[in-house]
């Protein structure tokens, strides 16, 4: 499922003819009613150029998106994965960051749509686990990419 904000069908050209593969064009900020076995939520522009282009949509993608996929996972009683980010630590005062470090985040800066959106998504994921016993797992990572152009996009990470 993708709204192709930064994604592109050509990235998955090899899959399109596979009868076991189904592509749904959809914006995650709107509820989605489908039947699936597991959910992997990676939807969110990740480079500063892209997430700062429409910051309100970026926050909505993380927050409304999380609410929508968590609601779906709860209804279907399935596992759900969230792609989080080291940016949830903001401008950290602890290096390297440990699981019990909460971060040092600016809530009103130009990067906040991404950092705070992802933080709120984490809050929602953990509350769904505590409140609804939903099996969740998260990953917090950084990208290492070979392409110089792509690296330039991510330089401000
Ligand atoms: N790239 C990294 O280094 C990195 C590091 C940490 C976390 N992440 C997270 O991993 C995920 C994927 O990152 P990426 O580098 O592949 O980013 P990307 O921008 O290349 O891919 C994001 C995908 O989400 C889709 N998308 C965006 N908004 C959407 C919406 N409202 N509804 C449906 N689809 C939407 C885009 O079209 C695109 O296919 C993101 O959630 C990002 O925050 C990435």
CATH superfamily: NAD(P)-binding Rossmann-like Domain
Query: What is CATH's topology name?
Result: Rossmann fold
Give the helix proportion (percent range).
25-40%
Number of domain units? 1
Tally the helices. Answer: 4
The small molecules bound here are:
nicotinamide-adenine-dinucleotide
Task: Report, as a whole number of angstroms, the end-to-end distance.
Answer: 25 Å
β-strand amount = 5-15%
Topology:
Layout: E1 38-41, H1 48-51, H2 55-76, E2 79-85, H3 112-132, E3 136-141, H4 148-154
Parallel strand pairs: 1-2, 2-3
The structure holds nicotinamide-adenine-dinucleotide.
Name the descriptors.
single chain; 157 residues; alpha/beta; 4 helices; binds nicotinamide-adenine-dinucleotide
Would you write up a description of this structure?
- The structure is a single chain.
- The chain is of the alpha/beta class.
- The protein has one domain (9-154): 3-Layer(aba) Sandwich (Rossmann fold), CATH 3.40.50.
- The protein is built from 4 helices and 3 strands, in the order E-H-H-E-H-E-H.
- The protein has helices spanning 48-51, 55-76, 112-132, 148-154; strands spanning 38-41, 79-85, 136-141.
- Strands 1-2-3 form a 3-stranded parallel beta sheet, covered by helices on one side.
- Strand 2 (79-85), helix 3 and strand 3 form a beta-alpha-beta unit.
- The chain starts with 37 loop residues before the first strand and ends with a helix.
- Mean pLDDT is 90; it is low at 144-157.
- The structure holds nicotinamide-adenine-dinucleotide.
- Nicotinamide-adenine-dinucleotide binds at residues 2-7, 27-29, 42-46, 50, 61, 83, 85, 141-143.
